[in-house]
Amino acid sequence: MTTYAVRDSTTMLRRQLRHLSRNLSTILMLLAVPIIFLLMFVYVLGGTLGDGLSGGGRRAYVNYVTPGILLITIASAIQGTTISVAMDMTGGIIARFRTMAVARASVLTGHVLGSVLQTLMQLIVVLGVAVLVGFRPDATAAEWLATAGLLLAATFALVWLAVAMGLATKTVEAASNLPTPLLLLPLFGSGFVPPESLPAGLRQFAEYQPFTPIMETLRGLLLGTPIGASAAVAFGWCGAIALTGYVWAKWLYNRDRTR
Amino acid sequence: MAISVTGLRRSYGDQLVLDGIDLEVPEGTVFSLLGPNGAGKTTMVQILSTLIGADAGEVRVGGHDVAAEPDRVRAAIGVTGQFSAVDDLLTGAENLRLMADLNHLPRVEGRRRVAELLERFGLDEAAGKVAVLYSGGMRRRLDLAMSLIGDPRVIFLDEPTTGLDPRSRRDMWQIVRDLAGRGVTIFLTTQYLEEADQLADRIALLDHGRLVAEGSPAELKRLVPGGHVELRFADEQALAAAAAVLGVAPDEESLVLKVPGDGHVRTLKALLDRLDAEAVEVDGLSVHTPDLDDVFLAVTA
């Protein structure tokens, strides 16, 4: 049925996009998380944190925190992916798809493409809010393009991970909780304060966890801070997470769920 | 044969759910698999519809082996499960359009089929409402309509009326009869004996993973004794006279005489003729054939 793989995937993507249009309240909730983080960190803590960072106050802190907020945006958006995959798997519709001559992978492809589009739209909204509260990037066109590429890669990787998480859970409630730790990962990295300011154990974690090189690269591209090896490590992490998520999801999806 | 199964076995862990099933369903007939909860009916449908594999045995549906050519089988079947497999977030029309697309129908043809099915299943008015707002009966009808988009030759209905109110159940029965009238082969599981009796050409009784009886509804009913004609009389004299003529022990309290017999018109007429010849007045008469409940209790006891 490979001949229909593209057509079936497009059909499934259309289904996901319709779901999104019926689920606007969920999307708004997922979108509220990074925006609340942004406003809280900028207006409540930003003045002091900014002074501590560079003496630049709130204005400097908006710039510092935005890359971390963008990753929180992705981590929040993929909770929707996990929930919608789990809803599909626990409902009867997936059994129907499996008894039809439909390209098997198209269900997952539809989820992945739909979620990537949804997350990218949320990233644009959050970036807009950041600019409104004072985010002033100095990126060139090429740097913006690279930023978009890295955000896309990170989104793609985390969406596959979210799909696998949705397949791994037995209930929708469990599915909604599973990706939550990802939301906190930017906090235990270079998202909100420089890792050098953290105590020893936490600092090592912050330096070696996947979100830090991604945030460092985004910061470099958008604000001109040094990037160094971060870019290669960032893309490496995205590739590794995407592959893990993909293999895990495929395995979960193809196993006989009744055994 | 639309469906043929030989030596089918399937277990979950160390629990044997299907234990050597053999059955054949000729094309264009309605076959009903009847059994209590947990008998293995759903597992049977899941295997026949390529959802899960068998541990042993050969299963062919629509002329294709389910293990070797699952996609050929899938292209030939429609499945409506026990729990509605509709997309709650899509409208009725969108659900059907999704199925048309997944059946790879050309756009125009797909639209035509969707409109036709919405009308045939009485869903045109609700076509624009999301399925989560549908009543139980409407969901089940939508579910079945979705199975029919690809014009399947074999349809599996897994407990299609479980949980429906009597009216929706009758609607569903009529839909099944219409389908059968179009020459579609129907494999129906149910725990309602009346449903199997109403719809099926042949019935198999499944109990603890084995087929314990198989035949037409009439054949199955013949398996159990208990068919009788009940004669009621106005008074004890008439009762006694009839008992003497027919050689049956009377039930004096209720003024009723139970005469063993199959209730065929000819034997019934002969019976009444004998009473008439002796001028015995019969007040009322009813024929009792064993129903499938009797059969089921008899063979699974």
UniProtKB/TrEMBL annotation, chain A:
Main location: membrane
Transmembrane segments annotated in the record for this chain: 24-44, 64-87, 108-132, 144-167, 174-193, 227-249
Domain of life: Bacteria
Stretches assigned to the ABC transmembrane type-2 domain: 25-256
Database matches in PANTHER family: NODULATION PROTEIN J
Keywords, ordered alphabetically: Antibiotic resistance, Cell membrane, Membrane, Transmembrane, Transmembrane helix, Transport
Membrane topology annotation: Multi-pass membrane protein
Record's subcellular location: Cell membrane; Membrane
GO molecular function: ABC-type transporter activity
An example Gene Ontology CC term for this record: ATP-binding cassette (ABC) transporter complex
Any single GO BP term: response to antibiotic
Protein name (record): Transport permease protein
Membership in a protein family: Belongs to the ABC-2 integral membrane protein family.
